[in-house]
Here is the input.
Amino acid sequence: MAVGSPGQAYAQQPGGLISSPSPPVDLDGHLGAGWRITGADGGRELSWRSSGPLPMGDAAVEFYAGDRSLGRPVADEDRHTLRLPLDGVRLGSAEELQVRAGGHRLDKDEPVTGTGSGSRRSGAAVKPAARPPANPVDPGRPGAYRTVTGEYQLKSVRLPGFSAPVEMRAVVVAPTGATGHRPLALFLHGRHYTCFNSGGEATGDWPCRSGWKAVPSYRGYLRDQKLLASQGYVTVSISANGINGQDYAAEDGGAQARSSLVRLHLARWASWAGAGRASAPAIVRSAPPADLSRVLLVGHSRGGEGVNRAALDSLDAPPADQDGYHGPTRWKIRGTVLIGPTIFGRNPVPDVPSMTILPGCDGDVSDLQGELYVDGTRGVSRGAALHSAVYVVGANHNFFNSEWTPGQAKAPAEDDFWADDRPDPVCSPGTATRLTAARQRAAGATYIAAAARVFVGADDRVRPLLDGSNVRAASAGPARVLTHAVGARRTSAFLPEPSAEVDGGRVCTQVDVDAAAGCLPTDAHGTSPHFTPWAMPKEPGRYAVALKWSAAGSQTRVRPAQPVSVAGADALALRIIVPPNTSGTRMDIAVTDASGRRADLGQMRVDGLPGTDRTSSYWAREVRVPLTAATRAGLDLKRVASLELTSRSGAGRAWLMDSWGWRPGTPAVRPAALPRVDLGRLTVKEGDSDSRTYRMPVRVSGHGEGRVRLFVADPVTDEFKDSIVTVRPGSRTIDVPVEVRGNTRFDYDVAHNVFVKALNDTVVGSYEGGVTAQNDDPMPTSTVTPVADKVVEGQSLTWRVSLSEAADTDMQSGFLVLPVTAGHELSTTDADPTWFEENTGESPQPSRALSTVEGLYLPVTIPAGQLSAEVKVPTVSDGVAEPEESLRLRWTDFSESDAPQTRPVVTGTVRDAA
Here is the structure.
């Protein structure tokens, strides 16, 4: 998650989070613990305060009302308080308020509701099966070369949308004595603290204030770099603090900026490998020249999304106004390694091979959304690129970077796995499944080297470590590492779609608020990386087959709309999910061809991953059954009509993600010429009358024909309408009309948000855009007048807030409780107890002055079209003789011209009834 300095410390969430997309409505009910509505110059704010400091990380932090996003909060310097401006934000019920980050809630010790997370399973993880055999070739063994290390720092650069320059700084580790041009591996760290001081404080500022130092996150991969350098690679790890400190302002969370930074460095390396070598930094001249036709990009967290975008931008340049690099592409990206990455844009690059490391105990990007770098490539392009997911049991997010690891980092660092007073049986330090920092980094270095050997070195002997072949790398030590993959020499077979007929199961929607249609049941323990939601509560186009049985012998039959081909394959590979902490799920697998010939292929066994409700452990295991029996039985493998799964174990559940015809090998990847779609944003004035239709900016580049899915959000209801659009050859835009209605009454800015996702034969760069209609009418003036400010016990103190004219949006204001300046103050037990508990979430006992109650705020909402509303403070008659008591309130009308100290203070008095 991401917190830090004001204006610089919240994470960017994908999905229409302009802060005022729709008009507000009343906040019903009391605010829960930690929540407040406060005021400052320029508007009111919803704030939440954590009991402990919040780390700065990569997952998107958002305020939610139920399943509806309210927007992205900004963090105070104290790292405890998050604030969200409320202009135009519809709050709804106070009981639904949540703080979410990476699939779990920060305001409560629980995952996000509605994702299939039941109560915590406290038992220990099931003991895994015997360790798989070691792969004959171990990429984690150091090579023959000695290494040299040094740094360079160049002139800072300006990137679009960022006010402060971004540093061009890096650490280089290279082989000595290597001849010829050597492949280049570039590392990009993720979003972390940017600055620290000698007192142990850290912030997300940029540039660093005087007396503070920049956090050296870029030095955190030296172990990985040295291993690759010993094997003959030139490696460079670049610093991105200047992006981390400013990406709050980027609609895509900084992905495009990170891509620009990566390509700016690559352009320098291209020059240094040729005519510009004499002007290269000393460490670069001491290294062998880099071979820019063989480049591996390694990105951690938001750095993963950044290098994914850089791979895309290296194939087809982004819009010039969004990009910070405008030169030629003089390099070729052979593959990417993505470590605990974000994928806010849901836009993986289909034709560049990738390996995604999923840390089983990730406490930052804890939903493991990086799985979609695998799943999201299916059917998008030719399918020749290998896309691998590597699940590391017991690994957290931070320890892959030594500068984010306590005891090794120069700046403050922490274990990101979110813990409380109840130990987690899988991920708490010291458990059998949790990895130490050293073991985690050993596994990380080994699998990064494996990706380099496969993607850059074309060494197919290492592919089994990445493609679900159930072998291990000896150099990864005791770490339990599991893999599955799509692409390479697989041929698509059974991809769940609503058009398929399913007997003994159902096609489920991976992301759906309707529990009956969704995949995971509401009582599931934990979540699934495969089912992570995007910006919308229901996402069409993502399906699985849900199986549930009560006894052995239950059969599920899947019949696609058209027969599929597995001709030429050696085996049928299935990616199948079983619940965490289960073992021995067994199924017989059979196929039937279009002529009715049937063959039993064999039996599979699947064990669940270690997991609790804090982990994303509903993850698909890859299993394979040979097609030998089908060939013997004379099946037409070009026309397979159905897949059968028959349970051979007791009651259970499973989810079939997909099935493929599998054969070994790593084919050469030639990127297809695909059209690229980038969305932009248009800002217009709403006008005084009538309605106008605008076309949001959409840029289509590249060649060919393909399909994308557009999601258009209604700014009033927050509902999404989706449509499939065909991008025709020669097209340069997609027509997306947006109607803006003008008027002469005050309203907040309205954002009409649009999202795009690649379906077939397309790629997507900038995935979010739209039209923002700016309010151009003045805010009505407001006043507060007493209705009953002198009452007897048992009556209500009442004030009326009035507007000079009606507005087209609910107008929210409120009152802060101040200490009285003289006499006796109204206490918690003088107020009606029900009213007090609803407004504070606390008990009125023990009796105390109302001004001492943290979070007591009295909201007032004037509904759209109306001119006034009242606020009441009900009192009780306690029969105790007391002196006159007072209540002092500061009205916060939040008009932009008023400073807090100039806003009026009202006083009410309560006397005994006698």
